[in-house]
Amino acid sequence: MPNVIYDYGKCNGNASCAEVCPVNILEESENGRWCKPIDEKVENEEAVKQFHEEVEESETQLDVTIENDMPECIQCMACVASCPEDAIQIE
Ligand code: SF4
Ligand code: SF4
Q: For the chain, how many structural domains are there in total?
């Protein structure tokens, strides 16, 4: 299953990853400072939910990397190519 890995220590929140994803499984955080996989689209939702909440509530960049199992990811690598901070990996 595709693993979409976000490094929130690098993310600047410019939202280009969410804009280019052809299957719309990424979104801007509620506070507009981050992008992240849409919770409902993550297979291991419970495992990553606490980290997503932590990211949502933070006013500063967090030194945390979150691995998201995303069955709908087609591994097109568009998000990786669009990211100016090298903050996303797809495995
Ligand atoms: S690799 Fe493609 S399909 Fe997967 S999250 Fe990134 S942009 Fe979306
Ligand atoms: S493209 Fe990169 S820097 Fe921009 S919101 Fe997505 S992960 Fe963060």
A: 1
Domain around 18? 3-90
- Residue 6 CA to ligand 2 centre (angstroms): 9
Q: Which of 8, 14, 25 to mutate to test the pocket of ligand 2 (most atoms within 8 A of CB)?
A: 14
In the reported structure, the alpha carbon of residue 73 is separated from the centroid of ligand 2 by a whole-number distance in angstroms of 17
Nearest 5°: the CA angle 72, 78, 80 is: 100
Half-sphere exposure of 66 (CA within 13 A, CB side): 27
Per-residue pLDDT tens for 26-73?
999 887 888 989 988 999 888 788 787 887 788 777 888 989 999 999
Degrees (nearest 5) of the Cα angle 41, 87, 26?
25
Q: Kindly report the length of the chain.
A: 91
